[in-house]
Amino acid sequence: MKAQTEAAYKAYVICTSPRSGSTLLCKLLAATGQAGNPKSYFHEPDIDAWQTYLGLETQRFATEGDRLQALFSTALEKGSAGTGIFGLRLQRRSFDYFFRQLAKLRPGERSRITQIEAVFGKTLFIHLARSDKIAQAVSFVKASQTGLWHKAPDGRELERLAPPKAPQYDADRIKEHVDLFTGNDRAWNEWFEAEKIAPLRISYDTLSNDPVSVTALILKHLGLDTAAAADIDLPVARLSDRINSEWIERFQNEKAG
After folding, report:
1. Does the model's pTM come out above 0.90?
2. How far is CA 39 from CA 92, 212, 251, in A?
3. Total Cβ atoms within 10 A of residue 239
């Protein structure tokens, strides 16, 4: 199904941090057939990594400007998927580097908002956050250790970044990521305030508990047909299990002590 011509926006950016439900949200929006194919097209703070991810690794360019133009044009094409709406997931760790490259492409634009809209069109900003930072940190540390980041509802592995390994409780790493993810949210909110952005705010809990309604809400804000969210099958399964619960409880008790 194609996007409606009266769509309120031409693009959206999911502003988030790891283990906040962004993979679920991206897959849900892509499955509507109306809202592009949102992914982390600019995930690594490395332009060579962008070129590889976008499938342009074998190409050579006369100037850096030509290279950047090709990268952003390719991302726009892939992230729109023929719908007329571009979707992008942007992790906070990628933020500064992403905008430094965008500024090179659009040096005449004064603000980051005008830079991004000059390339992608009128943009809706979505802030996807997880209020329970301990649970978020535990999820990240466990996934990093086991190598398994996402699996399908039928149990198939969708994303594994390392060979299987038994998880080991690590209070220091959990604390490190509690602080990191807390800082990510603070940085996003400071940027929204500085740029006078009123983002559409989505919580991890709401998304997990009612993914169809959240998908429909985003489609509504984009000016698209909300009915497209009704018959979507869940694309990923929760990885949280007894180990997550035990680590969370242990960390909370140690923190309280």
Report:
1. yes
2. 14, 19, 32
3. 16
